[in-house]
Amino acid sequence: MQTTPTPNLVPGLEGVATLESGAAFSCARKHDGTIWCWGSAGQAQIGIPEGSSDAGGDNERHPIPRQVAWLRDPRSLAVGSSHACAVLADRTVACWGDNSSGQLGHDPQLDPSCGSGHECNGKPTVVPGLASVREVALGGINSCAVRDDDTVWCWGTNTNGVLGHDPALDGPGSMAFTPTKVAGLSNIAHIAVSGNFACAVGRDDTVWCWGANSYGVLGLADGSTSTHTPVQLSGL
């Protein structure tokens, strides 16, 4: 692994509006609406060039940013550990990269195996059944979105109830690749998603969290407790 303490200019990247980084890759959305990614492509997380017929996963380094094709005027960008999503002009969401837990919003069995044997897809695909999206946030192997009606919808792995519903309702591996509404949340302004828990900020400035309570991140005294039901943090 090569490291450097000196900042380096990313080659060929100008006019950047927003920047997001995952576990071993980064993506930028330019002012012209295009999205460019670089770094690891083991799970096709930097996308594939237009016209490519493969899934896009390899174990090579990609230090030169390349444009993520097949995106219709993306308005915002979010990056997880090894996948990425964009809110498009029509307020739908398109995702690409690692799909081992359905975090792209479709059945992983529809995708080929990449890098480390995980299912992946470098071509952005629209998440079915999800419209009028205002914001999207990604965790390690899960994804969530806020719709214009201020509701929150999540999909991917549901370990510790991070998707906002009982993991016992899901299939093998607590996986749900169809977006489901997080019950008990309304009037939500913004969300933040981690690997094992998620939090939302209400329009009344309250904070609600759900999932694993490691180190008390949910604001619950019992650090071993996990809950799929959002709980309001006290003192905020």
Automatic annotation (TrEMBL):
Alphabetical list of PROSITE patterns matching this protein: RCC1_3
InterPro entries per the UniProt record, alphabetical: Ran_GTPase-activating, RCC1/BLIP-II, Reg_chr_condens
Protein name, UniProt field: Uncharacterized protein
Upper lineage: Bacteria, Pseudomonadati, Myxococcota, Myxococcia, Myxococcales
